[in-house]
Specification:
Layout (H helix, E strand, L loop, with lengths): L1 H26 L19 H36 L4 H30 L2
Helix pairs in contact: 1-2, 2-3
């Protein structure tokens, strides 16, 4: 698991540095800037990296939420298997954290998409 986290952080760092070079090249006054057609805003050269970053962020959010929901479901199933008479209280106690976890995942996805289309 640690290897995947380190690999993900390295990928994000590589794309961030690549986007930084693109932005630096755009701000250099000696380079030519393309003129956008009438009625359209110019697209920065780093825009594809914003979409890639949003995709990576959304993927990490969904993976994290899936792991959290899976752990909650496993804990609930184990608790119900040990004490079947407490199934209704275990189910009730699991619902609130489950809903909060899904809400955090949805908010994270919305923020990621807003950053991408900024």
């Amino acid at each position: 698991m640690k290897h995947f986290i380190i690999l993900g952080l390295l990928l994000v760092a590589v794309f961030a540095f690549a986007a930084g070079e693109e932005v630096a090249a755009m701000t250099d006054s000696s380079t030519e800037h393309s003129v956008a057609p009438v009625g359209e805003a110019p697209v920065p050269a780093a825009m594809p990296f914003a979409f890639l970053g949003a995709a990576l962020g959304a993927g990490m959010i969904v993976i994290g939420a899936g792991l959290g929901i899976g752990k909650l479901a496993v804990a609930a199933a184990a608790g119900i298997a040990r004490q079947p008479e407490a199934a209704s209280s275990i189910t009730g106690a699991i619902n609130l954290p489950l809903f909060l976890l899904e809400g955090v995942a949805i908010i994270g996805l919305v923020v990621t998409l807003l950053i991408a289309i900024k």
